[in-house]
């Protein structure tokens, strides 16, 4: 197996890439790296730090308490439960629609929508 070749970029190339990110040609360092075929997910970010352009790195600093983390986890669980309930309700509705179609077919009713309008509210 061949050893990987180290690619060296010139200082002017690095500066050009950073200038284009700064001017808004790319949405960020990762987009610029993809556009120029630069390997490594942090290469352009390291250049930005090296040349004092840290505003291009888009750091996300998140400060939270233990209570915030617990609340976040509870909300994630709540979303999962609601998604399951929505899936069940959707499945029930589909089954009910198919049951109505089958019942109408067995009763000889051709227009299911008309039947539903007549039967609305009646049990």
Architecture overview:
It is a single chain. By secondary structure, the chain is mostly helical. The chain folds into two domains: 11-56; 66-119. 64% of the residues lie in helices and 0% in strands. It has helices at residues 11-23, 29-36, 43-50, 66-107, 112-119. The longest helix has 42 residues, at 66-107. The radius of gyration is 30 Å and the shape is elongated. The N and C termini lie far apart (76 Å). The model has no long low-confidence stretch (mean pLDDT 87).
Q: Could you give a quick summary of the protein structure above?
A:
The longest helix has 42 residues, at 66-107. 64% of the residues lie in helices and 0% in strands.
Helix content: 55-70%
Main β-sheet description: none
Total beta strand runs:
0
Which structural class matches the secondary elements?
mainly alpha
Total number of distinct structural domains: 2
Tally of helical runs: 5
Distance between the termini: 76 Å
Unreliable runs, pLDDT <50, ≥5 residues?
A: none
Tell me the overall shape: elongated
Average per-residue pLDDT, rounded, comes to 87
Q: Encode the helix/strand succession as letters.
A: HHHHH
């Amino acid at each position: 197996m061949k050893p990987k070749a180290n690619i060296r970029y010139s200082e002017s190339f690095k500066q050009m890439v950073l200038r284009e990110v700064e001017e808004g040609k790319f949405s960020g360092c990762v987009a610029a790296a993809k556009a120029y075929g630069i390997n490594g997910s942090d290469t352009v970010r390291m250049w930005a730090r090296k040349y004092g352009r840290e505003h291009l790195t888009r750091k996300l600093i998140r400060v939270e308490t233990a209570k915030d983390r617990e609340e976040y986890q509870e909300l994630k669980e709540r979303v999962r439960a609601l998604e399951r309930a929505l899936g069940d309700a959707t499945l029930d509705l589909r089954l009910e629609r198919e049951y109505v179609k089958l019942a109408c077919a067995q009763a000889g009713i051709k227009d299911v929508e008309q039947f539903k309008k007549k039967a609305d509210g009646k049990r």
